[in-house]
Specification:
Rossmann fold; oxidoreductase activity; oxidoreductase; SDR_fam; SDR_oxidoreductase; alpha/beta; NAD(P)-bd_dom_sf; 9 helices; seven-stranded parallel sheet; 15% strand
Length: 279
């Protein structure tokens, strides 16, 4: 059965390839991006099956306007994919207020408002699927990415909560958690002005990895193939009963498995003290 998808952040990387693959198999895509022109080639090839909307997800008024327009023009949207986002790097005290506000507005508030804008339509059509692009960074944490992790951990909590709120309306949710993948994440990284005192700390070590552009070894080794990652996302989003979370790639599997195992170990270790707080 052909589907209609609404996808944010489609000009490059994962969002662009996802759009390409869905159109190639015969689906319809409402694709949003911040600037004209990036999807002109696909529009020429697929015509009315590609609906394009200009959208800055940090503009809540525009979010609602674009979602309203997409449903009005297309009639029904089956899957909403919250993909727009980027990384912010720097020790917490290195970050500017503007950088912090923009990161939260894009990665967290923008996704929340898109879901809120789509929910009345999904309820009215008695069904819909919300696909939230998170990352392994939604369950793990690395030095220098405190605000990025804050947004990813937060959006995962939001999605896990609303999945319970809207299940009765035939709406379900899926959180995608890719590890390091062949995207433009590093190229689009917003870098804070470094403080010399962090040069010889874990933040400095990670900063040197990203400024060098060498991801051939270490924690941030790029192991995941972009095309295979997108194929796995589509397969999961097509499933009759998708999982709430899907880790993508061996790096994501390993890192998430390690942190969850350690978290459970610590919880069990503290069990007696934990239970002593009961009445």
């Amino acid at each position: 059965m052909k589907k209609t998808w609404f996808i944010t952040g489609t000009s490059t990387g994962l969002g662009r390839l996802l759009t390409e693959k869905l159109l190639a198999r015969g689906d319809t895509v409402a694709a949003t991006l911040r600037k004209h022109g990036s999807l002109d080639d696909l529009k020429a090839q697929y015509g009315d099956r590609l609906w394009i909307g200009l959208l800055d997800v940090t503009d809540t008024k525009q979010v609602h306007e674009v979602v309203n327009a997409a449903f009005a023009d297309l009639g029904r949207i089956d899957v909403l994919v919250n993909n727009a986002g980027y990384g912010l790097f720097g020790a917490a005290e290195e970050l500017s207020d503007t950088q912090i506000e923009r990161q939260i507005a894009t990665n967290l508030t923008g996704s929340i408002q898109l879901v809120r804008a789509a929910l009345p339509y999904f309820r009215a059509q008695q069904g819909g699927r919300i696909v939230q692009i998170s990352s392994e960074g939604g369950q793990t944490a690395y030095p220098g990415f405190s605000l990025y992790h804050a947004t990813k951990w937060s959006i995962e909590g939001f999605i896990e909560s609303i999945a319970q709120e809207v299940a009765a309306f035939g709406i379900d949710c899926l959180i995608m958690e890719p590890g390091p993948t062949e995207t433009n994440f590093a190229v689009g990284l917003d870098l804070a002005q470094p403080l010399a005192c962090y040069e010889d700390t874990s933040v400095g070590e990670v900063r040197r990895v990203f400024t060098s552009g060498d991801f051939s070894s270490g924690t941030f080794t790029i192991k995941s193939d972009l095309a295979r990652t997108v194929d796995a996302m589509i397969a999961a989003a097509d499933a009759e009963q998708p999982p709430l979370r899907l880790a993508l790639g061996s790096s994501a599997y390993t890192s998430i498995s390690q942190v969850l195992t350690e978290r459970l170990r610590v919880l069990e270790q503290q069990k007696s003290l934990t239970l002593s707080a009961d009445r």
